[in-house]
């Protein structure tokens, strides 16, 4: 399971600057998919082949300055879920009573704490750290979230610490992928052979449990139950039409022991874990509530993880035609970046539409794992170029020359040629749509990567 790192600190110390730096793999996607926004609270950090979930507690609740308000309730709940807290302090102002207060609140919580002395660019590393040793925390690192100074070392130390406490070997740097979207995504999915792992994710109360119970309806054989921990989701294996599925249940259908409200809010962490483990994600939203910001963030996480996706718009029963129209408009607007995913309008309560979901899951799974033979890929590339010439860059035509498949799940298509890295995002989207049609890649994100040969 991935470590969870919470960023805490007084307002304005640089939490969100650090958060953005740590989770910036999203930036490339944001540029590629208009309408996709960052989740300002939860992100995934990728670091030399390791990954962790990062929570910016500054984005939680209201920013309050007064004493006692240094750490609000939600931040407290985030910390309860965290393996490691990075306490960010301001190196330019020195230790403040607010910092001390936060340290007092962190005491006895059993998570590792690292102090990151931020805004330390241009300051003497040792001197600036010395000041903060008075907080009584051993691990003190000088960083500049803005410039990036010291951030790598900080994260190295955090991972080393996490793995030491779990007594697992820390991945050697030579095993590491690059910090970016093109690292080997293939082997991130630990799906049991033959079974399709399906994560059911969505905000609380959208109907996930109801849907899972429907999916597990009589004709399907539930193979066995597994115990789970708080953060862990339970996997429910079942069979349908000869295919084995592992349903990753973030809703706690099989364990409705009343989780307290704060843990419920942190179901985002659970969802991120489930998305990571899944082959296909069923993202459930509530037609009565419309498509919310939180739905869009979850969808963004699915896209970022490169998972195959099926959209489930639940509670479709009893809606007026104008309400239905509004939901569809909402979907077009908020989920514009998910045009590859099939949409199902269902009623988990009454069962209507639910029977078709697994078919879409199968299609999306097949698409995500499809082999794209090089000759056909090149034929498609040249057809795409003939249909729509790439623009000029620095007075020369950008010339994609050939393509090959770089990986599966999601399919990665690597395009080589002159200046291909300068292809505008819109042209990349055109290519993506073209390949998607050509190879029936419905239901899965497709990554286009460029290798310049000049
Ligand atoms: P938060 O309230 O803790 O999330 O703080 P922000 O990330 O919003 O940062 C507050 C201010 O500090 C912003 O103006 C940032 O640009 C600035 N800041 C953040 N990191 C650094 C840094 O490393 N050096 C300097 N000089 N300023 C920084
Ligand atoms: P979860 O928190 O996402 O697991 O949501 P639940 O499955 O517990 O459902 C939350 C509430 O929505 C319950 O009261 C359900 O009965 C109700 N609900 C679930 N699906 C539907 C549906 O398709 N139509 C309607 N009208 N209500 C539903």
TrEMBL record:
Belongs to the TRAFAC class TrmE-Era-EngA-EngB-Septin-like GTPase superfamily. EngA (Der) GTPase family. GTPase that plays an essential role in the late steps of ribosome biogenesis. Keywords: GTP-binding, Nucleotide-binding, Repeat, Ribosome biogenesis. SMART domains: AAA. GTP 2 binds at residues 202-209, 249-253, 314-317. The keyword Transferase does not apply. Pfam families: KH_dom-like, MMR_HSR1. One of its GO terms (biological process) is ribosome biogenesis. Associates with the 50S ribosomal subunit. It comes from Halorhodospira halochloris. It comes from the Bacteria. This is GTPase Der. One of its GO terms (molecular function) is GTP binding. Residues 3-166, 196-369 form the EngA-type G domain.
């Amino acid at each position: 399971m991935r470590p969870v790192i919470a960023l805490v600190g007084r307002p304005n110390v640089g939490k969100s600057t650090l958060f953005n730096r740590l989770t910036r793999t999203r930036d490339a996607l944001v540029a590629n998919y208009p309408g996709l926004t960052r989740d300002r609270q939860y992100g995934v950090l990728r670091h030399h082949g390791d990954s962790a979930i990062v929570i910016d507690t500054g984005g939680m609740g209201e920013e309050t300055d007064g004493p006692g308000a240094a750490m609000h309730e939600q931040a407290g709940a985030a910390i309860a879920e965290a393996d490691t807290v990075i306490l960010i302090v301001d190196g330019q102002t020195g230790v403040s009573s607010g910092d001390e207060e936060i340290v007092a609140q962190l005491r006895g919580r059993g998570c590792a704490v690292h102090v990151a002395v931020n805004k330390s660019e241009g300051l003497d590393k040792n001197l600036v750290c010395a000041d903060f040793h008075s907080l009584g925390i051993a691990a003190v690192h000088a960083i500049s979230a803005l410039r990036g100074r010291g951030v790598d070392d900080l994260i190295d130390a955090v991972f080393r610490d996490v793995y030491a406490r779990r007594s697992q070997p820390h991945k050697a740097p030579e095993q590491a992928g690059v910090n970016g979207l093109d690292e080997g995504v293939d082997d991130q999915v630990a799906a049991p052979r033959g079974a399709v792992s399906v994560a059911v994710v969505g905000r609380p109360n959208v109907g996930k449990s109801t849907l899972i119970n429907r999916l597990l309806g009589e004709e399907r054989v539930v193979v066995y139950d597994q115990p789970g921990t708080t953060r862990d989701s339970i996997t429910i294996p079942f069979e349908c039409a000869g295919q084995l599925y592992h349903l990753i249940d973030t809703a706690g259908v099989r364990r409705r022991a009343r989780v307290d409200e704060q843990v419920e809010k942190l179901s985002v962490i659970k969802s991120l874990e489930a998305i990571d483990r899944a082959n296909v994600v069923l993202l459930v939203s509530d037609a009565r509530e419309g498509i919310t910001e939180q739905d869009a963030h979850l969808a963004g996480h699915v896209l970022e993880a490169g998972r195959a996706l099926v959209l489930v718009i639940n509670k479709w029963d009893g809606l007026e035609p104008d309400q239905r129209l509004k939901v569809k408009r909402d979907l077009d607007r908020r989920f514009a970046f998910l045009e590859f995913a099939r949409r199902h309008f269902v009623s988990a309560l009454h069962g209507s539409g639910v029977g078709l979901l697994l078919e879409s899951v199968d299609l999306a799974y097949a698409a995500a794992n499809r082999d794209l033979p090089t000759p056909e890929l090149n034929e498609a590339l040249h057809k795409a170029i003939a249909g729509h010439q790439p623009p000029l860059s620095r007075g020369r035509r950008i010339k994609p020359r050939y393509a090959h498949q770089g990986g599966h799940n999601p399919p990665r298509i690597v395009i080589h040629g002159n200046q291909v890295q300068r292809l505008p995002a819109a042209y990349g989207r055109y290519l993506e749509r073209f390949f998607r049609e050509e190879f029936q890649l419905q239901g899965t994100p497709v990554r286009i990567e460029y290798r310049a040969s000049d």
